Each structure stands twice: as structure tokens, then as C-alpha cells.
Amino acid sequence: MGCTQQEARRCLVVLHGLGSSRLAAMPGVTEEMLMKFGVRLVAFDRAGYGQSEPDPSMTLEGACEDLEQVLDMLQLGPKVFLLGFSCGGAYCYAAARFIPHRIAGIALWCPIGCFQWKGISQEARDSMCRTLSQGSRALLRYGGQLPFFILRWYVSFLLARRAGEAWVRHCQKTLCPPDQRHLQLHEASNLMLRDNVESLTAYEGYGMATDLHLVSNHWGFELEDIAEVFDGLIHIWQGDSDNLVPFQMQRIVKSQLPKIVNLHELKGEGHLSWFCFNHAAHRETLATLFGEVES
């Protein structure tokens, strides 16, 4: 989307979230806005999602090697900007750690964090868990203890088979009130339906099972490791009503990476409500990354 390779002044690569796909991209962003900022927007399916084949040996570091290959194959230039939504944030943090020379800057929308990072006390973990939905709490409690084949079975037989309308109805009932109201919009619920079906159908949720396995365990790096190698900026937007990703996690990340993280706290917003089909949010994200342009 946006500018052609020849016209673009910069490239923004989207790393999608859990149970999502390339179809989500930057939900609802207009071609006109991307053109205004001189942006070429690129979204692709991570391994095991949509049209991308699974990788049984996937690690966060290995995912960064795959990302670098995509950048080279598509000739996106020596450096790109990243936008990570929710679980996609884990892969953005990993990119800052493992391929910092290819990343110019990062925007994160309600990104997950690693509960096993140093500096996060058990008291903080317990406090964050209390703000989450029942499903998210169960993932944190049991996800890291279960072997991959159990997670694979769970996703394949219990989640992938209800992709689409059942998934949307579940989200409409269990997400926080701002997100429930947001999903009453036809364009929002329709995109979630198409995106979720695309995400889980081809490989029966293999990518989701991989994500659950990887993010529930230690990520293989600490926040301080990012600070040592990444010289760009990381901008985080987080709603304080989100019940999928704890608001407190972002303040912890900010406190440990004060020089490179800018935290944008969104009062009264959830996991989806501010980010999807909101031109003001898209403009703010692009302007923060690239600077303002004339209206």
C-alpha cells in the first residue's frame, strides 16, 4: 500500500499480532495518508500464518533472520521502520536486538512484553495478571509449561475450527468495553472476520501455536540487550483499559529503556479501539515516526 518503490521516501513493515495476518496491516489506513507521508507499507504473513509455511524450528532470533531475507528479497533498502501490533511487538523487540542495523525506528501498538524479563518482580507480575482477561491469564500461567504439541492440538482443534464469526463473537463478549463498542462497527468486525479466517485456516493455526509457545517462555534476550545495540527510537501506544496486554508492562519497559522508548498512554482505550479505522491514530503514528507533513 501507499507509495511505489520508486516514489517512497521510507518503508514501514507491519508485523501482525496473534491470530491475525497480512490483511490487517494498518487497519483502515488510507492510501492518501500513506502517500502524504511518502510511505510504502508492507505487510506479510509471519511463519505458519496465512500463506506462509510453518517453521517447526522457529525462534525469535530465527524470525529476525527471516525478516531480513524478506527485506532483501523485496529490495526495501538498508533500513526500514517497523510497526508491531500486540504479539507482533515481540518480533519488533527481537529485531531491535538481533538485526538493529536494519531497523530505523519502531512503532508499537499495545505490544506484549516478556514476563520473564529481569527487573519484573513477582508482585508486578501478579498485579499485571489481575488486569487481564481469563484467557490471557491462563496463557501466562500454563503456556510456558506445556509442550508444543499440546499447544498445537489446542489451537488446531479448539481455536482454528471456530475461526471467523465465532472468533468475532467471542471477542465482542470478552474484550474490554471500548473494544466491544469498536467491534459493533461493521468495517471493524468484517476485517477481523476475514483476517482471522485467513490467519488460521491454511495451516490450522500453526503460527498461533508457535507464538503462544515462544512468547510464554523467556525470549532469549533482556531489555538491556536492546539498549546496547539499538540506536533508534521505540514509540509505544497503549490503552489503559486493554485486558489482553497489561498497561503496567509498558511503564516497566519505559523505565528500563528511558533513552530510547517514548510511551503514549491512551486513556479509556482498549486493545483495538484506538488503533483500527482511526485516521487520527494513523496520522499520529506516522507523524511520530517520520515528522509532520502539510495537510
UniProtKB/TrEMBL annotation:
Residue span, AB hydrolase-1 domain: 12-274
InterPro entries for this protein: AB_hydrolase_1, AB_hydrolase_fold
Signal peptide feature range: none
Transmembrane residue ranges: none
Protein name: AB hydrolase-1 domain-containing protein
Organism classification: Eukaryota, Viridiplantae, Streptophyta, Embryophyta, Tracheophyta
